[in-house]
Specification:
Layout: E1 2-7, E2 13-19, E3 22-29, H1 42-64, E4 73-79, H2 83-100, E5 104-108, H3 109-115, E6 131-136, E7 141-148, E8 151-157, H4 163-173, H5 181-188, H6 211-227, H7 231-262, E9 266-270, H8 277-285, E10 292-294, H9 306-317
Parallel strand pairs: 1-4, 4-5, 6-9, 9-10
Antiparallel strand pairs: 1-2, 2-3, 6-7, 7-8
Helix pairs in contact: 1-2, 3-9, 4-6, 4-7, 5-7
The protein binds adenosine-5'-triphosphate (ATP) and fe (iii) ion (FE).
């Protein structure tokens, strides 16, 4: 089967074409416009999606070498995300499915981040069920027990900020541009992770909390800058390394706990923050503890449509589709 997938939940307009579980094309158009505002501006995001969607879909079909008429189904991200952004992808997908008279398949954005591991890439091994998916992104920080392609249970989640926000907001305090996560990652490489000890916030059970961390970084920086105005410039690498080190510590504490509680030792990370090199190498190191670990290829970590396509493929195989009455769902639960 050939499935076309559209992802437009936040600020990236993305389209992919899959042949079964193989990705033929994976096109992403970002939106630089938000950089100068230090975050995504919803109104500007939906407008940019409007102008990107047609060329992005055309490009994906062209790169795949597929004509619209050859497609077997159209899939799209139904939610969660920004209403105005989701509407663009949802409406476009519906019109396309209607015009081509082929099945329409909705996908949960976070299922996409999780099922990205099942994209066929260079015969890499795929996680076996059941496994623990740890979704770390700009809007989520969750530990999910995955028993099947369509059966997922959230067993831990953040009570406030997502880990991606912790990276981005800390970076903003340091004067780094948006999104700051990738820059902190880069700067941390030549810094001392133990130079500045930041607190590890408490949260019950398998849940997370990051808002206290961000505040601690803010107060610490304000205090030090008062004493020494060029504190940030002088210590940027060490500050970034220390921030990253603490966020990794917070993240893995609860993953370890989840493994003890469930007895499941297969861990697959997903979402934009799983691009982080510190998190990737830390996860690798746990192989020595008998964990099976899975890290998605770099291009499938941040928002992309291939992950929506692979999720749709498994729904398509199960004979699932939705009707034209389907609407965008900004706050849909897992
Ligand atoms: P969600 O998937 O929860 O709806 P989103 O789609 O906005 O949120 P993603 O695109 O999956 O989020 O991830 C974006 C986040 O990933 C940003 O917070 C960004 O800073 C972070 N990020 C990307 N690369 C890195 C990196 N190398 N290190 C740390 N964080 C990173
Ligand atoms: Fe995402």
């Amino acid at each position: 089967s050939y499935i076309l997938a559209i992802e437009s939940s936040c600020d990236d307009t993305a389209c992919a074409v899959l042949k079964n579980d193989e990705v033929l094309s994976n096109v992403v158009a970002g939106q630089e416009i938000h950089e100068k505002y230090g975050g995504v501006v919803p109104e500007l995001a939906s407008r940019a999606h409007q102008s990107h969607i047609v060329p992005v879909v055309d490009q994906a079909l062209k790169e795949a070498g597929i004509k619209k008429e050859e497609l077997s189904a159209i899939s799209f991200t139904r939610g969660p995300g920004l209403m105005g952004s989701l509407l663009v992808g949802t409406s476009f997908a519906k019109s396309l499915a209607l015009a081509l008279d082929i099945p329409l398949i909705d996908v949960h954005h976070m299922h996409g981040h999780i099922l990205a591991h099942f994209i066929d890439s260079n015969d890499q091994p795929k996680p076996e069920f059941p496994f623990l998916a740890v979704t770390i992104s700009g809007g989520h920080t969750q530990i999910v027990k995955v028993t099947d392609f369509h059966e997922m249970e959230v067993i831990g989640t953040t009570q406030d900020d997502a880990i991606g926000e912790a990276f981005d907001k800390s970076g903003k305090i340091l004067g780094l541009g948006y999104p700051a996560g990738p820059q902190i990652d880069k700067l941390a490489k030549s810094g001392d992770p133990l130079k500045f000890p930041f607190p590890v916030p408490k949260a019950p059970e398998l849940n997370y909390s990051f808002s206290g961390f961000k505040t601690a970084v803010l107060y610490f920086i304000q205090r030090e800058v008062k004493k020494q105005p060029d504190f940030i410039e002088k210590n940027l690498n060490d500050i970034c390394a220390s921030i990253q080190h603490t966020l990794i510590k917070i993240l893995f504490q609860k993953i370890e706990k989840a493994i003890l509680q469930t007895g499941i030792k297969t861990v697959a990370i997903g979402g934009g923050v799983s691009a982080n090199s510190g998190i990737r190498s830390k996860l690798h190191s746990y192989k020595n503890h008998g964990w099976s670990v899975f890290i998605p290829p770099f291009e499938y970590t941040t928002d992309n449509a291939a992950m929506i396509g692979i999720s749709a493929y498994y729904k398509f195989k199960a004979g699932y589709s939705v009707g034209m009455e389907t609407t965008a769902a900004p706050r849909i639960q897992m």
